[in-house]
Amino acid sequence: MSAKTPAVAVHHVVTGPADAPVVVLSNSLGSTMSMWDAQVDALTEHFRVVRYDTRGHGGSPVPQGPYDIDDLADDVVSLLDSLGVEKAHFVGLSLGGMTGMRLAARNPERVDRLVLLCTGAKLDPSSAWHDRAATVRENGSGAVAEAVVARWFTPGYLATNAEEKAAAEAVVASTPAEGYASCCEVIATMDLRPDLPRISAPTLAIAGADDPATPPPHLEAIADSVQDGRVLVVPESAHLANAEQPQTITSAILDHLRG
């Protein structure tokens, strides 16, 4: 456990059969567990689904920063322990995927299969993340909401889904400033490239073909570097690919988790 910020009891919801294999869903920076709404019903037919809000987001506590990637992994270990779950599948997007990579490398006994969506092992330049953290601390998360959502979805999708655009911007804007900024700093200081060869969990890396934040080469590098990885590039999707192309991605997650 990290000495500077002990694990927090994250807000979570558990659905699905009590005796089914467990899958944990981990959200992106600036979102909440609601980002998985399009996947939950299908996953719940086969799994005990554990959704949670990353620290500093949604209904979870907002400890004072700084945080690092080990803090986020510690929170998941603590959550699994509290639920009496020894080993789970893990599905994470962006920041959630980074958490999953660190967890699978550091605590391989806790991770069965891994799905990483729209994420990267290192996101340069770190200065951009420090700058975004400073903006949010000064002006609130609303200051970046429009720009963030413009990367979450393709322009065509945003043009024809005005309500979803507004709802997504509201979720970003409602993220506590300290939580959002401290998680920006997690990304700024993180380099998971040395971890990748240690990841033994069978890994599916899913890229949005039009993702400006973590384009397909990020996911291809992950799939190439872990012990058992493959990549799927999904057309007509940006950073929140699971929301923009839910049918394709839900079936891919199910196929991978069911082996």
* Second rung of CATH, namely the architecture of the domain at 12-121 and 193-257: 3-Layer(aba) Sandwich
State the secondary-structure class. Answer: alpha/beta
Number of strands: 7
Q: Roughly what is the average pLDDT, rounded to an integer?
A: 97
Shape: globular
Assign the CATH topology of the domain at 12-121 and 193-257: Rossmann fold
Protein name: 3-oxoadipate enol-lactonase
Domain AB hydrolase-1: 21-244
InterPro entries: AB_hydrolase_1, AB_hydrolase_fold, AB_hydrolase_sf, PcaD/CatD
GO molecular function: 3-oxoadipate enol-lactonase activity
Question: What topology emerges from the helices and strands here?
Answer:
Elements: E1 12-15, E2 22-26, H1 37-44, E3 48-52, H2 69-83, E4 88-93, H3 95-106, E5 111-117, H4 126-139, H5 142-152, H6 155-160, H7 162-174, H8 177-189, E6 203-208, H9 216-225, E7 229-234, H10 241-244, H11 246-257
Parallel strand pairs: 2-3, 2-4, 4-5, 5-6, 6-7
Antiparallel strand pairs: 1-3
GO molecular function, one term: 3-oxoadipate enol-lactonase activity
GO biological process, one term: beta-ketoadipate pathway
Domain AB hydrolase-1: 21-244
Any overview of this molecule?
- With 259 residues, the chain is of the alpha/beta class.
- The chain has a domain at 12-121 and 193-257: Alpha/Beta hydrolase fold, catalytic domain (Rossmann fold, 3-Layer(aba) Sandwich).
- It has helices at 37-44, 69-83, 95-106, 126-139, 142-152, 155-160, 162-174, 177-189, 216-225, 241-244, 246-257, and strands at 12-15, 22-26, 48-52, 88-93, 111-117, 203-208, 229-234.
- A 7-stranded mixed β-sheet has the order 1-3-2-4-5-6-7, with helices on both faces.
- It is globular.
- The two termini are 32 Å apart.
